[in-house]
């Protein structure tokens, strides 16, 4: 798994020439001159500890799937690419409205507790989203496959065999939709994998 994460990090560093900053364990990558003050092309959040995971699971009475737990603890507490074009959720520790908010991921509890689709099965654990239409990603804990579904309907419309496969292929695909300095090539083209 470590080699897989090393390859992912290498892919995400594509925009490092436009700026790179480490702040409180968070990697901020790619800040072309046209971006507003707090915007970055890629945000990789500081990994969680076992205590963070235990606290979150106890607080929400939910178990994070092992494959995603491994990602959260050994790579990143979520991920944000191109301002939410593709996001993976994590444990958001605060909701302050200050500069520190850029160091916080979209919250796992929102999609798994408060905005969970009514037809989601118990073995579906929601992990991310696309800003194109709010479509979401979940791990089926019975198969460890990752699925894409509409925001309010958990019916699978696309499937990957594993979290690692999804993450690697989606980073490559989404990066191909943007120019070298982070502009979307065609704003009318869907950013979804279907």
From TrEMBL:
Residues 47-169 form the Knr4/Smi1-like domain. It holds the Pfam family SMI1_KNR4. SMART domains: SMI1_KNR4 (SM00860). InterPro entries: Knr4/Smi1-like_dom (IPR018958), Knr4/Smi1-like_sf (IPR037883). SUPFAM superfamilies: SMI1/KNR4-like. This is SMI1 / KNR4 family (SUKH-1).
């Amino acid at each position: 798994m470590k080699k897989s994460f090393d390859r992912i990090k290498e892919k995400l560093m594509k925009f490092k020439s436009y700026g790179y900053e480490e702040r409180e364990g968070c990697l901020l990558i790619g800040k072309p001159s046209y971006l507003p003050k707090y915007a970055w092309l890629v945000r990789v959040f500081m990994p969680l500890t076992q205590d963070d995971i235990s606290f979150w699971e106890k607080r929400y009475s939910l178990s994070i799937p092992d494959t995603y737990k491994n990602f959260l603890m050994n790579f990143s507490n979520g991920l944000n690419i191109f301002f939410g074009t593709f996001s993976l959720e994590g444990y958001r520790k605060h909701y302050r409205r200050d500069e520190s908010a850029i160091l916080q991921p979209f919250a796992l509890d929102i999609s798994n507790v408060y905005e969970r689709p009514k037809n989601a099965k118990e073995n579906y654990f929601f992990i991310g989203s696309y800003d194109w239409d709010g479509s979401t990603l979940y791990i089926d804990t019975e198969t460890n496959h990752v699925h894409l579904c509409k925001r309010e309907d958990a019916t699978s419309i696309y499937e990957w065999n594993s979290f690692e496969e999804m993450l690697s292929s989606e980073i490559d695909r989404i990066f191909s939709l943007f120019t070298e300095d982070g502009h979307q090539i065609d704003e009318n083209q869907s950013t979804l994998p279907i």
